[in-house]
Amino acid sequence: MPLGMYDASVTIFTRMLTNLSAILDKAEAHAEAKKIEPAALLTARLYPDMYPLARQVQEATKHAHWACALLAGQEMPNLPNTETSFKELKQRITKALEFARSFKPEQINGSEERKLVIKFPSRTLEMKGQPFLLNMSLPNFYFHVTTAYAILRHNGVEIGKRDFMGPG
């Protein structure tokens, strides 16, 4: 059976966001156990010109939202980046999971050739569904999830590949 657009998007987003939420639990526990101010982790970066941890999580959830909406033929939701705590970031992930799970396979499957219009403040892109998912959305999503993981690992949070990949 060929891989459908739903399984290539929603299934991946929900698995990886669930894993990211569990990683944030470990980060919060680490900060508490080591008596580290949570803000030190939330504002940590790999390099000065990169987004901090909180923004990496926000961007990952944004890409999941956008992909699901666009592939289903809906407008991209507006997601302001206002979260400043582990609790708020986990709530954002929960909302992203609920949003992704609200789509049915038939809303997204068959979107390979759907013309998508992606509006940014400085430009508008037009792409078909499959190139958008495979060449833009998933790479960006994985970049931000991976960078969030790397920031936490670099700062001593005891997480490993199994945490990133999730169970089974």
Q: Tell me the number of helical segments per DSSP (H or I, 4 or more residues long).
A: 7
Shape: globular
Spatial order of strands in the largest sheet: 1-2
Give the N-to-C terminal Cα separation: 21 Å
The CATH superfamily appears as: dinb family like domain
Total DSSP E strands? 2
Reported CATH architecture: Up-down Bundle
- Classify the fold: give the CATH topology: Four Helix Bundle (Hemerythrin (Met), subunit A)
Helix content: 55-70%
Quick one: CATH class? Mainly Alpha
* Biggest sheet descriptor: 2 strands, antiparallel
- Which whole number gives the mean pLDDT? 96
Rg on CA atoms, Å:
16 Å
The secondary structure category is: mainly alpha
Order of secondary-structure elements = HHHHHEEHH
Report the portion of residues in β strands: 5-15%
Please indicate the count of domains: 1
How would you sum up this structure, described in words?
By secondary structure, the protein is mainly α. It has a single domain (5-165), classed as dinb family like domain (Four Helix Bundle (Hemerythrin (Met), subunit A)). It is 62% helix and 6% strand. The chain has a two-stranded antiparallel sheet with strand order 1-2. Helix 1 runs parallel beside helix 6. The model has no long low-confidence stretch (mean pLDDT 96).
